[in-house]
Amino acid sequence: MIDNKIKYTQLIKTEAKRLGFLSCGISKAHFLEEEAPRLENWLNKNMNGQMQYMENHFDKRLDPTKLIEGSKSVVSLLLNYYPSESQQDKTAPKISKYAYGTDYHFIIKDKLKLLLNFLQEEIGDVHGRAFVDSAPVLDKAWAAKSGLGWIGKHSNLLTQQVGSFYFIAELIIDLDLEYDLPTTDHCGTCTACIDACPTEAITEPYVVDGSKCISYFTIELKENIPTEFKGKFDDWMFGCDVCQDVCPWNRFSKPHKEPLFNPHPELLSMTKKDWEEITEDTFKEVFRKSAVKRTKFAGLQRNIKFLKD
């Protein structure tokens, strides 16, 4: 049985690499004891803002065995999205790098299905589910637990060799495997992300008030953006990369190799004027398969207007 554990673990990691994942780590599926009080405290302070879904399924969020019956292992995977080019007009409203190309949910879901199918073909009776930040799973906590990095002061997962510009996904399966050990924290005394956050959303090291984050305002918030944040958006119209851009570990970021993450040809060349005059037709064309669709045309217009006024 021990031999099988090693064999299956190796099988998963080799196939994950072949599918283009940056890295793969595995943890035992169990209750996240340390994260429970942290999550409860964060919710009690209303740091989720209008993201009510964060309050749902509290137990399942902390225990994958309650989410998937019979689950034994959480396979965490990272997929690089760091682009080789960025927006050309430095005065134009900015889009978070993760949203340049095709919506990552589809791309990663497809890769995870291939991985699960592969396991079923190679091993036989393996059951589980794929997750790409669309269900109550604490992605970063599981990735850190399985040694893929540590959670930085900006609350993103950080890895020494590659920084933080990657997506995190999971396969929760009913298979006993060899489990990885967590890595150590390498933020040290650095406070670059805390000092640089335009809206002071990082209230203390390792704690981000989601209701003050530019990503929250530009994507999640459906009503008007509070006027007290006027002039503090650093030109971000969808998402925000400031805390990642200033992080010293991201000096090691290398461009991704996933063609589907390449931006629409027009996206990077659009000027400030182009964005301010964007039509619904252009929006539909440029963001046809993009995560930016989530904010809808009216939402993006609201964000651009907020930067301009």
Structural class by secondary-structure content:
alpha+beta
Number of structural units classed as domains: 1
The low-pLDDT segments are none
Lateral arrangement of strands in the main beta sheet: 1-2-7-4
Number of helices: 12
The average pLDDT score comes to 95
EC number: 1.17.99.6
Binding site for cob(II)alamin: 61, 133, 157, 168, 215, 240-241
Binding site for [4Fe-4S] cluster 1: 187, 190, 193, 247
Organism: Flavivirga jejuensis
How does this structure look, described?
By secondary structure, the chain is an alpha+beta fold. It has one domain. Helices cover 33% and strands 13% of the residues. The protein has helices spanning 2-18, 35-44, 58-62, 64-67, 104-122, 139-145, 192-196, 214-220, 242-245, 272-276, 280-286, 296-308, and strands at residues 23-28, 73-80, 94-95, 128-131, 150-151, 157-158, 166-173, 202-204, 207-208, 236-238. Strand 5 (150-151) and strand 6 (157-158) form a beta hairpin.
Supply the key terms.
metal-binding; four-stranded antiparallel β-sheet; 10 strands; about 15% strand; tRNA processing; cobalamin; globular; cobalt; QueG_DUF1730; two-stranded parallel ribbon; about 300 residues; alpha+beta
Protein topology:
Blueprint: H1 2-18, E1 23-28, H2 35-44, H3 58-62, H4 64-67, E2 73-80, E3 94-95, H5 104-122, E4 128-131, H6 139-145, E5 150-151, E6 157-158, E7 166-173, H7 192-196, E8 202-204, E9 207-208, H8 214-220, E10 236-238, H9 242-245, H10 272-276, H11 280-286, H12 296-308
Parallel strand pairs: 3-10
Antiparallel strand pairs: 1-2, 2-7, 4-7, 5-6, 8-9
InterPro entries: 4Fe4S_Fe-S-bd, 4Fe4S_Fe_S_CS, QueG, QueG_DUF1730
EC number: 1.17.99.6
GO molecular function: epoxyqueuosine reductase activity
